[in-house]
Design goal:
alpha+beta; Aminopeptidase; 7-stranded mixed sheet; 9 strands; globular
Length: 205
């Protein structure tokens, strides 16, 4: 599937890049080029070390947001790109939509009581690795609640690697750490040898 005839990166090329530990980025929303990047130091969230604040846990208990997955994938990616500076270009949006239809790109979505999209995230699954790409929020803490649900999905289905690409202080509050490129490739290779499905059985978490 090629949305509206737009130029895309074929799914097999995208997946091969992730297998090799690199990821695509552009320099702006309308950048006609896509470049591949790796990092000397890689950000990962050890699944057993994930954490959120007491305030976020309270919001989850209150049921302020309803979680859905893969319900509004393109909308989530476009919301993530809708900022003053972004690496998510139209080519990347179209390419990941095709990857989504191929079953390897997923969105975690938070809806408010009026069924408006309040926040979410998206990423790529391959083997037992999940490569987090970006997240957004329209309402306070909705992005953090989406991360919490994403963690539950990864834990529930036996994922072994949660890649955030880079470490940031913001991600550090959720348990993100920085590891060497060598250690990252070891973890990636191990995760790719196993299969895990990105699906959510809400009743079992």
């Amino acid at each position: 599937m090629k949305p509206d005839g737009h130029r895309i990166i074929p799914p097999e090329i995208l997946l091969n890049g992730y297998r090799q530990g690199v990821f695509p980025m552009s320099e702006s929303r309308h950048d006609p080029e896509v470049r591949w990047y790796g990092a000397e130091k890689r950000g990962v969230i050890p699944i057993h070390q994930f954490r959120v604040s007491k305030n976020v846990r309270r919001i989850i208990r209150q049921g302020r947001f309803t979680c859905k997955i893969n319900n509004s994938f393109r909308d989530v990616v476009e919301r993530c790109a809708d900022r003053d500076t972004t690496w998510i270009s139209e080519i990347i949006i179209n390419s990941f939509e095709v990857l989504h239809h191929a079953g390897h790109a997923h969105s975690v979505e938070m809806f408010d009581e009026d069924q408006n999209l309040a926040g979410g995230l998206y990423g790529v699954s391959l083997g037992a690795a999940f490569f987090g790409e970006s997240m957004f929020k329209e309402k306070k803490e909705a992005d953090k609640v989406a991360l919490w649900h994403c963690h539950k999905i990864l834990k529930q289905n036996g994922f072994e690697l949660w890649d955030t690409q880079f470490y940031t202080d913001h991600l550090g509050q959720f348990g993100c750490i920085e590891i060497s490129r060598e250690e990252y490739y070891e973890r990636l290779e191990k995760a790719l040898q196993k299969q895990a499905e990105f699906q959510y059985n809400v009743g079992s978490v």
